[in-house]
Amino acid sequence: MATAEEVAKAAERRDVRDRWLLSAPALLVIFLAATGPLLIVLIYSFLTPGPYGDVKWQFSPDAWLSVFMERDIFDDTLSLAAAHVTIFWRSIKLAVVTTIATLALGFPTAYFMATRSEKTRDLWLFLITIPFWTNLLIRTFAVLQIIRNEGIINTILLKLGIVSAPVQILYTDTAILIGMAYVYLPLMVLPIYASMEKLDFRLVEAGYDLYATRFKVLRKIIFPLVKPGVIAGSILVFIPALGAYVTPSVLGGGKNMMLSNLIELQFGQGRNWPLGSALSITVMIIVMVALLAYVRNAGKSGVRHG
Amino acid sequence: MNWKTTTAAMGLALLATSGLARADGELNIYNWGNYTSPDVIKKFEAKYNIKVTITDYDSNDTALAKVRQGGTGFDIAVPSQTYVPIWIKEGLVQETDPGKMENFKNVAPEWANPDFDPGRKYSVPWALGTVGVVVNTDAYKGPADSWGIIFNTPDELKGKVNVVPEMNDVIFAAIKYVGGQQCTDDKTVLKKVRDTLVAAKPNWIAMEYNTIEKMGAGDFKATSDWNGSALRQRLANPAIHYNYPKEGYGLWSDNVVVLKEAKNVENAKLFQNFIMDPENAAGLSAFHRYANAITGSDKYMPADMKDAPEVVIPEAAKAQGEFQTMCAPEIQDIYTKIWTELQK
């Protein structure tokens, strides 16, 4: 005879089991959807390229070797894959600069928004989200219309007689940066604003009362308190900026490859799917390493207040 | 609801709204974007009571990759001649024997038995074209019948030249410019090609496809381009001229094939036959602005194309035209490496 306790335990066990069984399909789908495609990419990176795209089911480490090393086309010597390194470096640099630029613009914007009255705050928040209503490509083309040789900026400059010939902005690195900063700015503003909104401004007043300079208040009070928002914003901007495709090709003119173009080339005209897969995974590893370093770094100095 | 019932439901909804519920059949065409004349399609639909659906692709590689995965539901595709042998070799297309179709008599003799499809067992010509150099003569008045505009840019055009980033076309042009043969495995030639390209790049402003709009707006003053695109540019601005490079230029054609997995084979065959009719071929040309391989179509051609220098290759330039072919995979591999180095 089972005691009441045992019965209760058995019922509980059954309950736990049923819960697992019921959620299993959903968990399985999420697990497969998250890992399945990645797994295919990983497997493909160790196969041999087919003659006209696709892969041959034949193990080969060549793709991974050619991510980092290259055999010179002409004298057959093996050396560091300078072209790949240059392209990786260009993309990383662009992502870092974009993050800094959006932070420089986004921090004051968020501060401005958070210091408005409750009612107007919502209006500002609403205005920040407006760009999201249109497609990324259309926003990028809008920037193009503004900065091109016969665009708004150059027309005004020419009319005012400030310049005699149009300033070439389109197809330069500046153009890419303008476009990237514009496109990713809301992703920086929103998390910072979320932190800033919770900030107790009495602390700022207290700082001033204790004769802190404005800079000191910013550095010692405001910044540490909104740091989680800054970190979240930086991550949200850095990761997509690293893989940006549309903005650099439309505004940069496609002369210099970004990481994403290099990967696309392998799946298209280059017909080297394994190399494309290996490059994609390399990008993921870079992002992961950057994130770990960033989060750990931020965690160390992140002192909890209030 | 699985995807099949979803598609079926959507298809039914479409049929119900389009008022073509009594169509005798369907035809699903997979073609390059902005390339299929709506008027000719309407005519085909009316004539055979067939509902036509068109889906776009943007490159030969996209189309090949997608069809190879199977289950596309497309009946017809329009690969370039360089790719047709791959489609045949990979068993993606079926032998519809257009060479025996009723309208085949209209196909110009030089297109009736091409190397990429001997005896026209699979394909029907859709459009023909060339790759050359487009120059805005307001910006540069010198001789422009050379790839030198792109690879050794004259001072007036420095920083204003665009290159359409079609890898095979650009490397073909560069090989011609340094005096080699296409698909060469001669390392000294390929090295010259790489050095020429790398040295030329600082004078380019961009590598973009969007030439019609950018040449029109003046962002570019010269570009490498396809002839049909050049024609559209000239119609918008008469100062823009198309040139056939004297070092040699590429000839290409796109061809209609029927997929092995096609569900509407008979309708697809009807379509292949239909577009070999002179009037219909001219209708297609009037839209995509390229020449076609159908004799007798000239009398139906729009007036602005009849003797357009972009469409009708001048006698003097005829000899330099050369059909582009698909290079061996190992050569293609070298191309990709040169291309990566060019854009690094």
TrEMBL record, chain A:
TM segment ranges: 20-47, 87-111, 123-147, 167-193, 229-253, 273-295
Location, primary (coarse class): membrane
Location(s) in or outside the cell: Cell membrane
Keyword Transit peptide: no
BP GO terms, sorted: transmembrane transport
Pfam family, one: BPD_transp_1
Annotated Gene Ontology cellular component terms: plasma membrane
Residue ranges of domain ABC transmembrane type-1 in the record: 88-296
Keyword Iron-sulfur attributed: no
InterPro entries linked: MetI-like (IPR000515), MetI-like_sf (IPR035906)
Record keywords, A-Z: Cell membrane, Membrane, Transmembrane, Transmembrane helix, Transport
Membrane topology: Multi-pass membrane protein
Coiled-coil region list: none
PANTHER family named among the record's database cross-references: INNER MEMBRANE ABC TRANSPORTER PERMEASE PROTEIN YDCU-RELATED, INNER MEMBRANE ABC TRANSPORTER PERMEASE PROTEIN YDCU-RELATED-RELATED
Family membership noted in the UniProt record: Belongs to the binding-protein-dependent transport system permease family. CysTW subfamily.
Official protein name in the record: ABC transporter permease
Organism annotation: Mesorhizobium neociceri
UniProtKB/TrEMBL annotation, chain B:
Residues holding spermidine: Q324
Source taxon at top rank: Bacteria
Record-level GO BP terms: polyamine transport
GO cellular component: periplasmic space
Main location: periplasm
Signal sequence extent: 1-23
InterPro entries named among the record's database cross-references: SBP (IPR006059), Sperm_putr-bd (IPR001188)
Function description: Required for the activity of the bacterial periplasmic transport system of putrescine.
Full protein name: Putrescine-binding periplasmic protein
